[in-house]
Specification:
Layout lengths: L8 E11 L2 E2 L15 E2 L2 E11 L4 E8 L22 E3 L5 E3 L16 E8 L4
Antiparallel strand pairs: 1-4, 2-3, 4-5, 5-8, 6-7
Length: 126
């Protein structure tokens, strides 16, 4: 909006992002329950923020992140492994390795849903 005679102004920002298909790591040799598709689906996310500027460098704002509430289901492979996350096992020669079923390389989208926020800003020295 236009700034009034006291320096006050409304602002709005709306951003949407379309993320197309992405190649995922090959899992054909994994146990069947841990196999994943070779391609991630297309998804849309969006953010909205509205703010009000006041005189003296003061601003209030409210917003929503991930307006579409898109979340990737089961982003980490092996989270339900009975050995637990981060368990180590001894292999030949006394070497230690992490559980081979645990794999976080499949995260391709938001894992948290819609998020609301609000805040106040002050700019000093204007």
């Amino acid at each position: 909006s236009r700034m009034d005679d006291k320096g006050r102004q409304w602002r709005a920002d709306v951003t949407f992002q379309v993320t197309g298909p992405q190649r995922l790591p090959w899992t054909d040799e994994s146990p069947e329950e841990y196999r994943r598709p070779l391609e991630a689906p297309t998804f849309v996310t969006g953010n909205i923020q509205v703010s009000r500027d006041f005189d003296e460098g003061q601003q209030i704002y409210v917003g929503i992140e991930n307006v579409t509430n898109y979340r990737q289901s089961e982003p980490i492979v092996g989270m339900d492994y009975s050995g637990g996350v981060g368990d180590v096992q001894t292999v030949s020669g006394g070497a230690v390795s992490e559980d081979p079923l645990y794999d976080a390389s499949f995260v391709y989208a938001p894992i948290f849903g819609r998020n609301f926020y609000a805040g106040v800003r002050w700019s000093f020295g204007r």
